[in-house]
Amino acid sequence: MALQPIIMHLDGSCRKGEIGSSLPPTDQLVSIDQPVGSGFKAKNLAVDVRTIQESLNKIAPMHGGPKVKLDVDGKCGPKTNKAITDFQVQQFGIKGADGLIEPGKQTIQRINQLLFSSLPVDPTTNEKIRVQLIAHIGLVAKAIHAAQANLMLALGPPSTVDLGRGRAIDRLDRHFALNALNPVQREKATRDILNVFNLYQQCLLLPPELELGFLGTGAFVADPTGDHRIAFAFANGFFRKGEIEDRRKIPMDRIYLGRRAFFALTDSELCAFIMLHEMAHFVGFPDKSYILDEGRGWFTDDTIKKLTTNQRLHNADSYAAFATECRTASANKPPYVKASNTSR
Ligand SMILES: [Zn+2]
């Protein structure tokens, strides 16, 4: 059987599957100046309301678009308000349905994730994407370096001066449950994790893949298939140089970020977390076993707490979360980390 990529879908879940493209294209990101919808915050400028009406009309009902197309009249009446709420319920559930679309917030982001172009992008757009990607890579690089420093400290000898070794070991215990191991196993596991992050670092140093026509920043490229998924990578893709995926004829030694979905996200912290997550799938464990998704979330979430040491060593979010804590020096769960069990 052909090797399938591990795909991160719009809801943040990761599953193996085919890369496809199913949504209608639009050539530019949708944006509004003032809130649209119901409630006291809504300004409902005619031009903004028209933008939302047009955008929702382009979204298929299965994704929460209106079953009957809205009149594009710039007036936010009962039908438009219902269409906004229906879209939010479909995408975010009842709790996420406040009936209001605000500039730059999650509803407009999701509309863009669903609509952002699948067509070949013009050089100006391409340059914008490249600049956005490089901005996130700064955070990713910091997280990798912080993780490496933390691991070196944990591997080093005990010191009478407090260099933070205790804290470094505590982090490994919380994210990877290394406290369940004996000293010999612990040292091996710590070295294995360090090897994973050394490979992460090499991902940032891969030469640009110019023939893909994109970005050229380490292992990361914009998804040339125009897929609406957030991101995908092939398991151990780092070691698959020269291998080509059958169906779409794309190299397996790259990490693909969705032009519709990933690049519509404006939260750099979230983007960096997603990139750290994908890198774990991409590099794999030192013994060449795969790092997949055993559970999504932070070490304080039940989805992670129930995992054994070995499962965490093979769990992408454990690496992303550990590196994030090393970078921020905070054990608090960031708001963008979502807990979920993963179907395999
Ligand atoms: Zn994943």
Question: What does the model show?
Answer:
Helices cover 42% and strands 7% of the residues. The protein contains ten helices and nine strands. Helix 4 crosses helix 5 (165-176), helix 4 crosses helix 7 (268-283) and helix 5 runs antiparallel to helix 10 (316-328). Mean pLDDT is 86; it is low at 21-27 and 210-214. The structure holds zinc ion. Zinc ion is lined by residues 6, 8, 14, 277, 281, 293, 316.
Estimated radius of gyration: 22 Å
Kindly report how far apart the N and C termini lie: 17 Å
What is the overall silhouette? globular
Strand content: 5-15%
The residue fraction in helices comes out at: 40-55%
Largest sheet: 5 strands, mixed
Any low-confidence stretches, pLDDT <50, length ≥5?
21-27, 210-214
CATH class of the largest domain: Alpha Beta
What is the CATH topology descriptor of the largest domain?
A: Collagenase (Catalytic Domain)
Q: What class would the helix/strand composition place it in? A: alpha+beta
Total individual domains: 2
SSE series: EEEHHEHHHHEEEHEHHHE
Q: State the fourth-level CATH superfamily of the largest domain.
A: Collagenase (Catalytic Domain)
**Assembly status:** single chain
Total count of strands: 9
